[in-house]
Amino acid sequence: MSGDNILYNLYERRLAARLDPARAPHHVGVILDGNRRWARAMGFGAAQGHKRGADKISEFLTWAEQAGVRVVTLWLLSTDNLSRDPAELSPLLDIISRAVEDLAATGRWRLRLVGAVELLPEPVAHRLRAAVAPDAPDADGSAGGSPGSPAGAPAATAMEVNIAVGYGGRQEIADAVRALLRERAADGATLEEVAASLREEDITDHLYTKGQPDPDLVIRTSGEQRLSGFLLWQSVHSEYYFCEVNWPAFRRIDFLRALRDYSRRERRLGR
């Protein structure tokens, strides 16, 4: 082991030891940005960048698990990304599908799809649904399941991992309102009655992430300092951490620095 590696490992252990588990975020959202920039810098094609980024996911989830995080939301594909050139989009969708199947196959984490999955090509949507819920029937009534489906379900106490694919913050809010209106209409309520009784909690209860805590910490890699609509409703009181490193090169030490920065902040939660 080189001297640089020894120093790096010592610094990493020192960082981890100084973090207070009681101040760890319960829910971490991650905007996995910079795959293409990393690929260009390395002289690779875009698909290789996306593949390297996908390979990083399991490693990151292990770090989050070790830090005591209970929920992780990974933004893998936005609704805007669906308009990319088919020559890039097609292999990207396959890489994402394989990554989700591989995560499911470990049986370590409870996976949930968050996003307008119906906007994806049907074969891709089928693969994702089958990986996340292998025993559930698909939209066409056929049995789920895939070669990557886990042999056993994760424990009820396992970390929850939201896979945000075909996700847009505005789309999520629109879908939540639509679901709420349909639910109230089925109960016989008029539009005027719904408007008169509408509360913030009613929207929250119909989001893709319903039943989960809002994100405490949102991390974006690649140096971009914008949210792009990520968890638009849920992140109103979140702390943000922008990391210069592109996602494929993201290291545990970068994650620990984000946690250290978060632990030093005084959260006001809008007060």
Automatic annotation (TrEMBL):
Return the InterPro entries for the record: UPP_synth-like (IPR001441), UPP_synth-like_CS (IPR018520), UPP_synth-like_sf (IPR036424)
Show the Gene3D superfamilies listed in the entry: Decaprenyl diphosphate synthase-like
Q: Which SUPFAM superfamilies did the record assign? A: Undecaprenyl diphosphate synthase
Q: Where does substrate bind?
A: 34-38, 50, 78-80, 84, 220, 226-228
**Cofactor remark:** Binds 2 magnesium ions per subunit.
> Where on the tree of life does the source sit, at the highest rank?
Bacteria
Q: Which GO terms describe its molecular function?
A: ditrans,polycis-polyprenyl diphosphate synthase [(2E,6E)-farnesyl diphosphate specific] activity; magnesium ion binding; Z-farnesyl diphosphate synthase activity
Catalytic activity, EC: 2.5.1.-
Enzyme class at the top of the EC tree: transferase
Which residues are named in the active-site annotation?
Answer: 33, 81 (proton acceptor)
Q: Does the keyword Transferase apply?
A: yes
Which positions does UniProt annotate for Mg(2+) binding? 33, 239
What Pfam families has UniProt attached to this entry? Prenyltransf (PF01255)
Task: Show the GO cellular component annotation of the record.
Answer: plasma membrane
Q: Example GO biological process term?
A: polyprenol biosynthetic process
Q: Which key words tag this protein in UniProt?
A: Magnesium, Metal-binding, Transferase
- The UniProt record lists the keyword Transferase: yes
Cofactor(s) this protein requires = Mg(2+)
Instruction: Give a short account of what the protein does.
Output: Catalyzes the condensation of isopentenyl diphosphate (IPP) with allylic pyrophosphates generating different type of terpenoids.
Subunit-level organization? Homodimer.
Q: Which HAMAP family match?
A: ISPT
Protein family (similarity comment)? Belongs to the UPP synthase family. Z-FPP synthase subfamily.
Q: What is this protein called?
A: Isoprenyl transferase
* Source species: Actinomyces bowdenii
Gene expressing this chain: uppS
